[in-house]
Amino acid sequence: MKSIPYGRQSIDQQDIDAVVNTLQADFLTQGPKVQEFEEKFAEYVGAKYAVAVNNATSGLHISVLALGLKENERVITTPITFAATANCIRYVGAEVWFADIDPDSYLLCLESTRKLIESKPKGFFRGIIPVDFGGLPVDLEVYRELADKHDLWIIEDACHAPGGHFIDSKGLKQKCGNGKYADIGVFSFHPVKHIACGEGGMVTTNSKVLYKKLSLLRTHGITKENMQENHGAWFYEMQELGFNYRLTDIQSALGITQLAKNDAGVTRRNEISKIYKSAFLGKVKFQSLPIGAYNAHHLFVIEVEDRKGLYDFLRSFNVFAQIHYIPVHTLPYYKNIGYGSTNLKNAESYYVNCISLPMYPTLTDEEQKFVIDKVLNFVL
Predict the structure, then answer these.
(1) Do 77 and 131 contact (CB within 8 A), yes or no?
(2) Section 67-88 average pLDDT
(3) Of the chain's two ends, which shows fewer C-beta atoms within 10 Å, N or C?
(4) What is the chain's mean pLDDT, rounded?
């Protein structure tokens, strides 16, 4: 059996042609493909605005800046995420406060978050960054109600979840990143994600004020909007201390063709998920699916007692499963700045047992059966 990774990009001739056409065009960066990608992505998720960036970490960074996060202020997030979700808070000198996860959905636990907020005086926290972990959407309607009660903003880390949605209390489908309940959504275009641009990300919002701030911070804090008398087209103003977080036209061209295939890719991911669930039901624990939620399935995570044993066993058959994630509060950097005694029992229990199995649209039925057979051979 050939090597089977936990995730991988899918690039076809249409993608290649789009990139080649851009390489032969006038703009390799700061050209029309970037704006086209932004407009098509905003339409896809149902948001008013989208700002393309060079990666999702940059997107998270400018998101907290656009929302005015300052040194020594405090933001709540989940410990089961990639470090960038928490790091963006630290980039501005603010404090990360972790709430525990739900042991079945693996998402940030609403009650844990509520208890943490209510244990402090109003104004102690500035915001919440929930993560659509594995592709499973957070119910942002209930988080919005909590946030409004305590004057908090919400950034939805939707890096795993383009194409995912939940159903709100009105029975309406709410796509990840649509800006209905979160102030800002952030997506990733890393190769193992749904939409591969090599590297890249997108920030979405329904606020024109935030959109302008994000756009400014993405490009050095520079704007050409306020043309002055006696100046020509060269004129610009630097209004903020911004960054060079731009996405190129080359990457945007690839993103456009990848985006057009995302619905089909998410459908296939859900087909793969159903096969896994059917095989593992009653034998192996896997991520729960709340009623009304549509999981975009960046990952398919299971829990087993001998996780290291299964990891090594699968690798011996060229099945390269992965672990998502080491709890952020246990990483050396965070332990060294005071998180060593943090008690998040659900997150820590999850980490001991979790392992991510292969999940990507081009995974064949034969390959998936091989993976399932090996997992069951090991655990039963």
Answers:
(1) yes
(2) 98
(3) C
(4) 97
The C-alpha angle 272, 102, 299, rounded to 5 degrees, equals: 25
Note whether 284 and 375 are within 8 A (CB). yes
Look at residue 167 and tell me whether its pLDDT is greater than 80: yes
Give how far the C-alpha of residue 338 lies from the chain's centroid of Cα atoms, to the nearest Å.
26
Q: Are residues 159 and 72 in the same domain?
A: yes
DSSP string across 343-360? --HHHHHHHHHEEEEP--
* Helix, strand, or coil (residue 174): strand
Question: Where do we find the tokens 């690839």?
Answer: 254
67 and 124 share a domain?
yes
| Number of structural domains the chain divides into | 2
CA–CA distances in Å: residue 151 to residues 31, 127, 158, 313, 374 = 39, 8, 22, 49, 50
Does one domain contain both 38 and 167?
A: yes
CB atoms within 10 A of CB 353: 15
DSSP 3-state of 44: helix
- Domain hosting 183: range is 4-261
The amino acid sitting at 201 is: G
Helix (DSSP H) and strand (DSSP E) numbers for the chain: 13, 16
pTM for the model:
0.97
CATH number at residue 323: 3.90.1150.10
Closest alpha carbon to 33 in 253, 258, 219, 199: 253
